[in-house]
Every structure is written in structure tokens, then in C-alpha cells.
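User: I'm putting together notes for a lab meeting next week and I want to include a structural view of one of the chains we've been expressing. I don't have a solved structure, so I'd like a prediction I can at least talk through. The sequence is below, exactly as it appears in our construct file.
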Amino acid sequence: MTAEAKGGRAAEGLVVEGLRKHYGDHTAVDGVSFRLAPGASLAIVGESGSGKTTTVRMLVGLERPDGGTVRLDGRDRSAPPRRRARRLARAREIQMVFQDPYLSLDPRVTVTGCLDEVLRLHTDLDRAARGTRVTRLLDQVGLGTREAAALPRDLSGGQRQRVAIARALAVEPRVLVLDEAVAALDVSIQAQILELLARIRTASGIGYLFVTHDLAVVRHIADEVLVLKSGRIVESGPVPQVLETPEHPYTRTLLASVPRRRHFPTDR
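Assistant: Thanks for the context. Below is the predicted structure for the 268-residue chain, given as C-alpha cells.
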């Protein structure tokens, strides 16, 4: 996918302005604004309760904002669509990969069945074409025929996360939201998944929103970083600038909590 929208116009990417969400008297997200250009990678960081997960849940439609706007390539996503076809089309545009793959994988369905189900729902491909597409998706995330026939419980944590990524990629999204997608994995498997995600972004031009509390991971997945505290942005900018010369005390606190800098194969 390129940075050009259909019809030759430059794609705007994801534009979020003044996003707000309240739960009773509690303000979970307060005036959050940012832009994710096509093919770019933005990390949203903060401690538990900072509002980062609520923010991305509003982007994918799992929560409805109380204020603000969300636009993708100029199309407003703030109000829920009424027609099924439009709901499916909107779902294809922004896909989400969770920390726990079991949130998106049916434990009773094989990997092949899981991916085929997505393709039957969202495409007009016939059975043979779906089979070819499933094989390509598995190859894209580094899985083979053995994993294709397996149930989720028979896979390792890293393999299940690869399946979840393949499932999200099946509908060719414009934006991939990764909510603590490597947090439950050990460091060596984290490195493999981060390297996989870097290759996919380079090849496809998908934009990434990477939600995490781990600043050591941010260095290896994102171009820019946005720091949330109590639902508000306290600092944002290019990753090297924010992580090497943080201006806000909260950002410095987050950095101080990282025990040591981890080195991944994706170090640049």
C-alpha cells in the first residue's frame, strides 16, 4: 500500500483531534490529538490508567468518544456507521492486535480456519483463492503447514501472536494498532516479533500505533512517541528526542523506571 490515496491524491493518514472520554466523574482521555502518517509508526506510552488503551479502543470503535474527531484519509470515524457494509469496511481500515491473542483467536478453530473465517466475512474470494491467501499470510508472519493445522492451545505464545498479526493483516488495513502486543513475551521472542513487524511495515506501508508501557521497546518500533498521563498528552516528538532529552518530569520518571537498555536484533 502506498501513501497515495485512490484517485491520485495524497493520503492524509489517521488524524485525531481533541479526543475525550468520560466514565462518570472520571476523565479517562482529555483532549488527545495526534496524526499518524501513512506507513509511519507512533508509540503511545504511559503507565496503567494513563488513557492509552481507552484512546485506541475509541479509534477502532470499541468505545465511543464523548468528544473530538477521528479521521482516516479524510473520512470521519467519530460516529458509528448504521449499515453493515459500512461497519465491515470501517473495521477493515483499522485492525487491532491485543496483548493476549486469545481475545481474537477462537480456541476451537484451527489457524487455517481462523484466517479463512476472516476472508469469508470480508472478501468475495472463492475457496481456492482463500486457501492461497491463507498460505501467503502464514508465510508473511513466518508460520508453516504444521502451525496452519494447529489449534491455538498447541502453539507457543509467540506463534499465537503471529497468528493474531496474520488475522489482522488479512483484511489489508491502513492502520495496525498493537496494544501491548509483545508485553507477555520473553525478550528473545519480543525481538523476533518486533523484527517481523518492522519487515511487514517496510513491505506494506501500513501505519502502526504501538501502545506500550515499555520504553525499551519503543526505541525499536516507533518513529515518534506520545506520552500520556492521566488522559492528557504531556510530551510528544521523535523517539530519539523524547527518549534521549525528555522535557517533562513524567517522561523522565518513565525512563528512570527502565532497569537497563535492552538490545534487540533490530537495533539501528
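A couple of points you could mention at the meeting. Confidence is low (pLDDT under 50) at residues 1-9. The chain is about 35% helix and 25% strand.

User: Perfect, that's what I needed.
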